[in-house]
Amino acid sequence: MCATNTESGVSVRNGCGSGPLAVLVLGPVLVLGGAVAARAQSDAPQYEVFGGYAYLRDVTDEAVSIPKGWNASIARNLGRSLGLVVDLGGHYKSEEGGDFSEHTILGGSRYSFRGDKLTPYVEALVGGVRSSESFGGESESTWDLAVQAGAGLGFKISDNVSLRTGVDFRNIFREEQSSQELRVVAGVSFGLGGRREPAASSGMQRPLPEPVSPRRTVPGPDLGAQPASPLPPPRPAAPARTPLDQEPTRPPETLGVRPPAATLESGALSRGRDLLRRGSYPQASDAFREHLRLNAADRFTIAVGLYCDPTNVAQLVHASGSDEQLFLLRARRRGAACYGIYWGVFGSSQEAQQNLASLPPALRAAGPAPVPVLRLLR
Predict the structure, then answer these.
(1) Distance (Å, rounded) from C-alpha 309 to C-alpha 283?
(2) Which domains does the chain have, with CATH numbers?
(3) Which of 6, 75, 186, 224 has most Cβ atoms within 10 angstroms of its Cβ?
(4) pTM, whole model, 2 decimals?
(5) Alpha carbons 369 and 378: distance in angstroms, whole number
């Protein structure tokens, strides 16, 4: 049965979500590991070094995934099955004008079911997670305790090289509440330092590979004797378009639409201002995004800050006097619905920098900084 907790604006789902997925993925791996362990005769290297790709998904908020990441680990095998592991990882994502990164350093034990070709394993780790966020020239980072359980499967392609994939479930103990993450890794593992338990020698030597004879160069046909095909006639040049820079210059103190304005563009802007004054922030964000995508994707704005409490957003709107320069866009921060507050649209970063003094005092106190509009639309 699923339970939903919406406290602090974060939706947490307990008892459902990725639980069936973890059982579906880890179950066959553990069953296969038990079958292989019954007849495992392989020895183990003293050290195993792994490196590869890592995909991260926030189980607390199933809409958040981070496809850009890496994972590396080193294991010290105490025997054929038991080993000590140090695991490192990094994940990165940029959206809505902000950058997010998460780095982990974990340590623990691993138990491997070694076979001739396949090596399933299970492991339990504990360590720290460093989460970093930056927005509008400001950055914040925190360290939190994390525990992680995982299972995977290695496929040996040579004596010291294996392909490996695995699934990990991680619980992070944050200040407000804990969060859960699901990680999938895939990469290459290298065995180093000899073998812990050498296998018995069969007394047979492998034959040496046959020598490869050098290739002879075969002269190709005389291409110069072939008749040259006539070149196609050139296409007529397309008429040159008028660059956007030749449009009439707008005064920096307005967020208005470029003349001549399309009905959809001017309607989106006026609709966003009206919704912002009425406190309908999600709908206002959609209208402002539509206007910026059609009219100001190549321009710059001033980022005031990122706010996750609607009360703070309302106070900033009131402090600005509902000025037409102010607009907002939805963003996400640690799974919570937040809003980025922005001021004005300008032709260049230098122009935006020069207009920082035009912000109301309440907005200047947040430490605003110029940012490209295109970065907010990704």
Answers:
(1) 17
(2) 3-195 (2.40.160.20), 250-376 (3.30.70.1070)
(3) 75
(4) 0.46
(5) 19
